[in-house]
């Protein structure tokens, strides 16, 4: 469903060169690597947010960076779910209002079971500013899943969470991927979490190496 071909990128220095990656339905992929190796940059490229210096990213056989801007925005809004380290929640609104925005855009219902799995059903009427960092992170994951994206991109999705909560969050993401025929690419420093994915790649020496 998503394929990167010959992707290279540099800022002040070269980050990676000729990266190839393929994500299939129901597949989960982890990307690990040293701090500064370019993991988040690669995720931004794969998720339509940053055009690479060279190479292509195909979603459903079409090069996303060759699409019209309006089409690219549609893919980003409807097909891709992007979970950032910074949550981008609407702070002046309640947790529920933040989810309502996703239901308005997608015409899906809020999934009460998902809220329970993520352990945020009891804070749903509170303002975002009253939630802990971990609760905000789980709310942003709930908002992304409510949209029912085909591909989820997650940058350190369990970064702020304790071990038990991390397990709940990862189980919710994996369950979503399998039940909705979606795909997941996540960036993490947590090697245990990476091992739970179907494939793990390490960004090292400008290349993406598969770890077995
Ligand atoms: N928009 C940008 N403009 C210029 N340089 C950038 C930009 N974004 C990232 N960089 C640089 O690219 C390098 C890789 O950053 P990136 O965030 O992709 O690494 P990372 O592997 O995700 O790191 P970490 O594990 O610490 O989050 C860093 O040196 C960073 O300063």
Folded structure, characterized:
The chain has 212 residues and is an alpha/beta fold. It has one domain (2-211): P-loop containing nucleotide triphosphate hydrolases (Rossmann fold). The chain contains 7 helices and 10 strands. The chain has a 6-stranded mixed sheet, with helices on both faces. Strands 2-1-4-5 form a 4-stranded antiparallel sheet, with helices on one face. Strand 1 and strand 2 (14-23) form a beta hairpin. It is globular, with a radius of gyration of 17 Å. Bound molecules: adenosine-5'-triphosphate. Residues 11, 15, 33, 35-41 line the site of adenosine-5'-triphosphate. Residues 1-211 form the ABC transporter domain.
User: What is the tally of beta strands?
Assistant: 10
How many discrete structural domains? 1
Task: Please name the CATH topology.
Answer: Rossmann fold
Order of helices and strands: EEEHEEHEHHHEHEHEE
Q: What Rg, in angstroms, do the CA atoms define?
A: 17 Å
Shape: globular
CATH class: Alpha Beta
Major beta sheet summary? 6 strands, mixed
Order of the strands making up the biggest sheet: 6-7-8-3-9-10
CATH architecture: 3-Layer(aba) Sandwich
Q: N- to C-terminal separation? A: 22 Å
Secondary structural class? alpha/beta
- Ligand kinds: adenosine-5'-triphosphate
Say which CATH homologous superfamily is assigned. Answer: P-loop containing nucleotide triphosphate hydrolases
Low-confidence stretches: none
Question: What percent of residues are in strands?
Answer: 25-35%
The total count of helices amounts to 7
Question: Which bin fits the share of residues in helices?
Answer: 25-40%
Global mean pLDDT = 92
Organism: Malaciobacter halophilus
Pfam family, one: ABC_tran
Protein name: ABC transporter ATP-binding protein
Keywords: ATP-binding, Nucleotide-binding
């Amino acid at each position: 469903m998503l394929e990167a071909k010959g992707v290279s990128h540099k800022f002040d220095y070269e980050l990676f060169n000729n990266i190839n990656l393929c994500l299939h339905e129901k597949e989960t992929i982890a990307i690990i690597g040293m701090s500064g190796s370019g993991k988040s940059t690669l995720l931004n490229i794969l998720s339509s947010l940053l055009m690479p210096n060279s190479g292509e990213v195909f979603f459903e056989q079409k090069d996303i960076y060759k699409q019209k801007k309006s089409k690219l925005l549609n893919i980003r809004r409807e097909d891709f779910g992007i979970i950032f380290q910074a949550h981008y929640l609407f702070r002046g609104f309640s947790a529920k209002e933040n989810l309502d925005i996703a239901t308005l855009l997608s015409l899906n219902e809020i999934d009460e079971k998902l809220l329970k799995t993520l352990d945020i059903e009891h804070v749903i009427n509170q303002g975002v500013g009253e939630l802990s960092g971990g609760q905000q992170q789980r709310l942003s994951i709930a908002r992304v899943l409510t949209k029912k994206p085909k591909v989820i991109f997650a940058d350190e999705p369990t970064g702020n969470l304790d071990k038990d909560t991390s397990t709940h969050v990862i189980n919710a993401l994996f369950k979503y991927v399998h039940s909705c025929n979606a795909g997941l690419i996540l960036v993490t420093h947590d090697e245990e979490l990476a091992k739970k994915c179907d494939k793990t790649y390490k960004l090292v020496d400008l290349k993406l190496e598969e770890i077995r």
